[in-house]
Each structure stands twice: as C-alpha cells, then as structure tokens.
C-alpha cells in the first residue's frame, strides 16, 4: 500500500525489533515499555506496516482466547501517515486472521469511526483511573480479611472464575500472568468469589484483571492490591459507572484520566451484575 510517499507492506509483528515498536507507541504517546510489547507478542499475533528499508509505520494485533473469541489491540498508525487509509488496511488483514471469532476491542476516540465502519458495536465506556497512590483518607471499605495471596499453583481456580466473568477461557493469558503478576483472591465459605492481579506495566503498576461478584468485593481486592504502593504510579481501567469502586479509586489517588469505548463484533459484552462474576478491572486495553 502507498501512504504519502511511502510504499508499505505488511510483515509479521514477531519479525520486528522491539525498539521499532516502542518508538511507534511513543509516537502516539502510549506508555508501553519494550517489555510490554514483548509480553503482547508472546500472547498474540499481529502485523506491522513497513517500508522498503524496514521502517515501521503501523501495527495491529489480535489475541485469541480459545477458538471462539479474540481481542484486538495495539492498532497504531504513525502520525505522519494517519488518515490515509492505513488503519483500515491493517484492520482488514487482522479481521481476516481472526476468522469468525467474536471480537472485543477498546477504542480510542481516533479509532472509533474506523471500528464502527468495520461492524463493531459500542457496548460500554472504559474509565482509565491512574495516579500516584496515596493512603486512602477515608476508605469506603478497609482491606477484607477474606482476601488472600494466591500462589501460581492456585491458578486453576482463578482461571475458572475468570472464564465465567469474561465469557471465554483465557488460558494463555492466565498462564502468562501467573508468571508475572501478584494474585489476590477473595474467598467466601471456601469458594473463590473474586480475584485481582497487579503487575508492572507502562508507567508503573497496573491493577487488573479484577473479577468479583460485587463492587464491594472489587474494592476489597483493589484495596489489598494497593498495599505497599503508596507514592507509586498505579493504573486501573474499569467499565463500572460512578459508584463505590470509582470513588474508592479517587480516594486512593487514582483520578479519572481518560475514557475509551468497548466495542464488540459477533456478540455483546457479558453483563456485570451483582451476585455473579464480572470484570471490574481490565487486564489491558488490548486484552480487555
Ligand atoms: C486510530 C488510528 C490507528 C487510525 O489510523 P489511520 O491510518 O488514520 O486510519 P484510516 O486512515 O484508515 O482512517 C480510518 C477512519 O478513521 C478516521 N480517522 C483517522 N484519524 C482520525 C482522528 N484522529 N479522529 C477521528 N477520526 C479519524 C478516518 O477519517 C477514517 O474514517 P472514514 O473512513 O470515515 O474517513 C490512528 O489514528 C492512530 O494510530 N491513532 C493513535 C493511536 C490510537 O488511538 N489507536 C487506536 C487504538 S484503539
């Protein structure tokens, strides 16, 4: 494809130097570190748009969650060639690779028109809360004694709860997070009713995924995961409307920074309602 004076072809994203991908995301002011790109590449597939001398002008990725579902992310066109059809060109290829899986993605304002034109349907607003964590002045709830650390050996129970909330099993993601994240669980009457993770990502620490059966349980998990992070940069993305969880995040120094929209193609997003497992904190925009 020709974009301005550049002749571009797609290549497998696995073949590219991570520094070229890092430069691409820095160019659109995204916080990903090279290690975050490598983690995404170990979890999914994708393409880059490259010119004849190997310069990278764009990227797009997809992440299979079993045979029926996938998330799409890391869709970037470098600013000097935006609005020339490059985003659409890469997305057409990614959609082909995804086959007939149902799809979930989180869209920035810049990408919204593109995704709607490709048949994606808006489902929810994602609120990105972040900031330097402070001791919560007036916690809505304190850390719940029922919150416990979960060792990697407990992953089976966590993965089952995650699948119930997400609507599909995410075995590859769960295995990856077991090796890189700290995991806390919330148990009631011996049954795991919630879990949350924290890991290094972007500018600091990301708390997510968070799965719970109520906002109060999500707060208990997040409160526990914030322990020891005072003064550190922390981010949590949630689809919850204003309420207990988001008030708690604000009180802990994680202010609302930006919003994106979740769109799906092929099936609606599972609802989050009290009494059944739901996603209260996203893993990452690209992974939902
Ligand atoms: C979103 C992005 C990938 C689109 O790439 P692109 O190469 O400009 O896309 P295209 O040229 O194929 O344009 C696709 C559509 O988006 C529209 N568009 C492009 N940039 C836009 C912007 N900044 N604001 C609103 N619409 C925009 C185009 O007009 C086009 O719509 P049309 O077909 O109705 O005319 C690119 O703007 C980008 O990298 N932005 C920063 C990172 C980002 O937000 N990524 C999306 C993550 S979900």
UniProtKB/TrEMBL annotation:
Keywords: Transferase. PROSITE patterns: GNAT. InterPro entries: Acyl/Acetyltrans_Enzymes (IPR052729), Acyl_CoA_acyltransferase (IPR016181), GNAT_dom (IPR000182), YitH/HolE_GNAT (IPR041496). SUPFAM superfamilies: Acyl-CoA N-acyltransferases (Nat) (SSF55729). Residues 8-141 form the N-acetyltransferase domain. GO terms for molecular function: acyltransferase activity, transferring groups other than amino-acyl groups. Pfam families: Acetyltransf_1, Acetyltransf_18. The keyword Transferase applies. The keyword Transferase applies. This is GNAT family acetyltransferase.
